[in-house]
Amino acid sequence: MIQEVMKYYFTEPVTRHEILRDKERLVAEVEVDGEMYYLKGEKQPVAFIEKIIEFTILMNDAGLPFIVPEKTIIGNRYVEHGGLLFILEKKGFGEEIKHLRLSHSREIGKLLGKQHAISSTTDFRFGTGTSWGMFGGNETDAIGDYDENELSYLALIREIEKEGTFKIELDTVKELYLSRRSKLKEVWSSLPSGPVQGDLCPYNLLFQQDEISAVFDYDIAGDEVLLNECIGVAVFLAWHHDFEGTETPEEHYHAYIEAYEAERPLSDGEREMIPHLFAIIRAFRYDRIEEGIDKIKQGDGKAFIDETIMLLQG
Questions:
Q1: How far is CA 76 from the centre of its chain?
Q2: I want to staple 217 with a disulfide (CB 3.0 to 4.6 A). Which of 30, 91, 116, 204 is the partner?
Q3: CB neighbours of 77 closer than 8 A, spacing ≥ 6?
Q4: How many CB atoms neighbour CB 135 within 10 A?
Q5: Terminus-to-terminus CA distance in the chain, angstroms?
Q6: What residue ranges in 11-159 does DSSP mark as E strands?
Q7: Which pLDDT score, from 0 to 100, does residue 136 have?
Q8: Which residues make beta-bridge pairs with 174?
Q9: What single-letter DSSP state applies at residue 144?
Q10: Cβ pair 255, 234 in contact under 8 A
């Protein structure tokens, strides 16, 4: 299949290819005439693929290092083959960062601020949400309905209730969480929103000399409340990603936020919501909750629940 799809892009033969992923989506590294590419195929609506292409062109034209899918021989930027939609991305220059330095946190904050500044002024929209979304209702597991933060909260509540020994703490968690969520929900639709890449994290970036040289992977791009993605990425970088150096997670967080605001200053309304959003994202990020539930099951959950309350109190 790789060879057949690549014929849409090149008359030259593929000299080497390696399948990197073959579950849910097909991802292959492909070499043609000494140049390296990533061929990506998945089951997506044509309209969404076309939106992704439009979005990458928009950001690239604005000077951001978003990799735009390559054109086929006849000028298309995607290929339909074998029930999948394929795009081809030229491999960017640079390296993936495994351990963040403070300069990397700043650079990611700077780039996200630039992206959001563009997103807040364009009329372009995907028409679908991202995996960061909140208040979708969780009526389905589709992106846009799917609310991971709420699902993590509900999973923890169920586990504490099953344990049956932390009633006072359980009531406190519920009160604090629902209070902060309520304040956010009141203003959510009025907060600035726009189209975003949806996963601007180190595993989707390449760096050269501490500067971001390439942004790739747009399969969960969509429309999002900009502050939600801003704080979500900040929490992930500072508390859920490996970094080197002596700086604390708090220092990484503040360096990121300062760099973000240098490109897109937050409104007063957004600033008022940061404590509420930060508290529920820190407390109920899914991987933190997964670890906490394991501790509760092992009979060692008191410290985790106490920490959850502390995070929600802010």
A1: 27
A2: 204
A3: 53, 68, 69, 70, 71, 87
A4: 16
A5: 53
A6: 16-23, 25-32, 35-42, 79-81, 84-90
A7: 84
A8: none
A9: T
A10: no
